[in-house]
Amino acid sequence: MTTTSDSLIILIPVFNDWEALRLLLPKIDRAFLGSKWKPSVLIVDDGSTEPLPEAWPESTFDTLQSVQVLHLKCSLGAQRAIALGLYQIHEFTDAGAVVIMQSNGEDRAEDLPALLTEFDYGVRKELVFARHSDRPKSLTARISRGLYRLIHSVLTGTEAQMDTFSVVPRFAVNRLMASPELWNHYASAVHRARLPRRLVPVATGKPLSGESQTSLGNLLSQAMTAISVFGDQVSLRLLSVSAAFGGFALSIVVLTGLIHIFTPFMVPAWATYMMGSLLGLVLQALTFTILFAFIVATRRSGVDFILQRDAPFFLLGKTDIPISPPLVQLGRALMLKSTMPAVHERE
């Protein structure tokens, strides 16, 4: 499929956050005033328990080409909603790029021009991720995110990427369709696919409606899914650490035995028991790590989730949102018709 270079789709997963999204859409519309981009919005309804309000969003837009809501059959979480939205864009549009952002307002529409400028600076061949340097507000959130980044770095050897606010070129969408990791975590899938990317520092916006729905439980869930993408690297590191501790414990036991046999020094009984218990614990950890590594290797050798094959099962339907009054729509249709070349019948 040929792509339209200046067409842009803004992908927004949402769960019950219709009011915040209603306030966000006009901000997105204003962000593209005077821009060369032709933006459309694809909202992925992640199985919301609150239905789409009547006459929503009660606004008209100047730059947005269309607003559509893709409904999922059940709630799968924001990461999988993003994956299904990318599938929908890949299969049924010719957009040249995709912007992924949150619906609650923490990803600011005012930052879209900066991200797209950086995208153009990279000749539209790199993904551009926003980095929210001031996202954590409370002490608990800061500690939780700090621990997550530390654990992620130790277990995977890579820096944790928690933000999804990004610009994705068309070729990257095509490559991500073949990435099973996309089903679990978008940013980690980008890293595993070795797609070129750059970071742009941005400020964190305030929630547009109520408080942010991000909780400690949601953060822990995101952390586990992000780390799970690197299961093979995690198993290799755990295996190396277990083997090192096993070798250390075994050397201590051997040294203790040599001291007891070849020297006049008496080894206390408690030391012997402690060394034996330590060696047993290390061997158990090593055994479990080896089993974990085999499970990960077996899983990666099998057929994983494939979006282009399995995604349609989760899609319920699509709603086109009117973005202008009927008279304005009629005027646009007449203008489009007047600019189309005339078709002459054969004589």
Task: Reconstruct the topology from this structure.
Blueprint: E1 4-14, H1 18-31, E2 38-45, E3 67-72, H2 78-92, E4 95-100, H3 112-121, E5 127-132, H4 139-156, E6 166-169, H5 170-176, H6 186-192, E7 197-202, H7 216-228, H8 231-262, H9 269-301, H10 307-310, E8 315-321, H11 326-339
Parallel strand pairs: 1-2, 1-4, 2-3, 5-7
Antiparallel strand pairs: 3-8, 4-6, 5-6
Note down, in words, how this protein is organized.
With about 350 residues, the chain is α/β, with parallel strands linked by helices. It folds into 2 domains: about 5-230 and about 305-320, Spore Coat Polysaccharide Biosynthesis Protein SpsA, Chain A, CATH 3.90.550; about 230-300. Helices cover about 50% and strands about 15% of the residues. The protein has 11 helices and 8 strands. It has an 8-stranded mixed beta sheet. β1, α1 (about 20-30) and β2 form a beta-alpha-beta unit. α4 (about 140-155) packs parallel to α7 (about 215-230) and α8 (about 230-260) runs antiparallel to α9 (about 270-300). It is elongated and about 95 Å long. The two termini are about 35 Å apart. The relative contact order is 0.13. The model is unreliable at about 325-330 and about 340-345 (pLDDT under 50).
